[in-house]
């Protein structure tokens, strides 16, 4: 029987966590490689200094699958993710999945993720995250596509993934010895983790129909937040290159790419139409700056503020 652990790292988002756990209880029946039943458990890792999520998790009744609560007081997403991995591997576990505590999984999510794993043989499956805005969100934020993520046809092999909607074969932990390493206060440990997996020959494929929905809180709807996110993304990409030991040629290419991205962004700032166009230009400038500065170890703390409830 296939053994599956669905892992959720949480911090001070009781409403979001409850909504996510509710969505997991509404999942369609998942099936294993030979269409046999699947053993599923849910691991919740509370990364608050105090076990603030314990009461809410332990008070739940009627959940479809067992929910295991783990308190990880060491601050930081890498510590929380690694605690989730340790809890999942404390029992037989073939497949581990990560979701965020501000997401909700569509009913076919788990079944689809396992099916794509079975049909492709990939060690990592990542999938769609669709934004959902709170009432009253400004039109420019919704129409600009700032919170949309790229999508691909199911089965497409891609070179990256995030832990916001991903399936991982546990051999990456037990055989390859991978863990989520601290890469700096800007985060991006998942970017580096999956870059290491690809470097070891592991495959990452896309599952377009395995949809989760992410709440976009009002605190994230600002030009400042969007620009900071682009800067952080540039930093994390280059931090991963630095940690993987990139060659001088790859460093040079990254610098050139970063500078060209800055120039392209400056042009968009000048000629872009309205707030949407100018914001996209500023994002390009920030991304390019992050690509360059990340090579020399620059950091940015994007996780001091908890967005959402």
UniProtKB/TrEMBL annotation:
InterPro entries: Glyco_trans_2-like (IPR001173), Nucleotide-diphossugar_trans (IPR029044). Belongs to the glycosyltransferase 2 family. GO terms for molecular function: glycosyltransferase activity. Pathway: Cell wall biogenesis; cell wall polysaccharide biosynthesis. This is Glycosyltransferase, GT2 family. Gene3D superfamilies: Spore Coat Polysaccharide Biosynthesis Protein SpsA, Chain A. Keywords: Glycosyltransferase, Transferase. Residues 6-165 form the Glycosyltransferase 2-like domain.
């Amino acid at each position: 029987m296939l053994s599956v652990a669905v892992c959720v790292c949480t911090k001070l988002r009781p409403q979001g966590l409850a909504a996510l756990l509710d969505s997991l209880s509404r999942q369609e029946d998942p099936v294993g490689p030979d269409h046999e039943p699947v053993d599923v458990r849910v691991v919740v890792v509370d990364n608050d200094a105090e076990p603030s999520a314990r009461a809410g998790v332990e008070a739940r009744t009627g959940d479809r699958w067992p929910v295991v609560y783990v308190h990880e007081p060491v601050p930081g997403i890498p510590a929380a993710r690694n605690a989730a991995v340790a809890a999942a591997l404390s029992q037989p576990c073939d497949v581990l999945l990560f979701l965020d505590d501000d997401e909700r999984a569509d009913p076919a999510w788990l079944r689809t993720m396992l099916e794509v794993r079975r049909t492709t043989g990939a060690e990592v499956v990542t999938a769609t995250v669709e934004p959902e805005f709170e009432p009253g969100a400004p039109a420019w934020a919704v129409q600009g596509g700032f919170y949309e993520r790229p999508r691909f046809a199911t089965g497409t092999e891609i070179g990256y993934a995030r832990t916001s909607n991903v399936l991982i074969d546990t051999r990456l932990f037990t055989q390859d010895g991978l863990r989520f390493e601290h890469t700096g206060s800007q985060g991006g440990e998942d970017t580096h983790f999956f870059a290491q997996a690809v470097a070891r020959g592991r495959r990452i494929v896309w599952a377009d129909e395995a949809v989760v929905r992410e709440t976009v809180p009002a605190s994230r709807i600002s030009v400042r937040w969007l620009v900071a996110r682009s800067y952080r993304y540039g930093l994390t990409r280059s931090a991963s290159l630095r940690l993987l030991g990139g060659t001088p040629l790859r460093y040079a290419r990254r610098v050139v790419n970063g500078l060209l991205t800055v120039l392209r962004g400056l042009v968009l700032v000048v000629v872009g139409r309205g707030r949407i166009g100018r914001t996209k230009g500023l994002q390009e400038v920030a991304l390019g700056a992050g690509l360059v500065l990340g090579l020399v170890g620059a950091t940015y703390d994007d996780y001091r503020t908890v967005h959402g409830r």
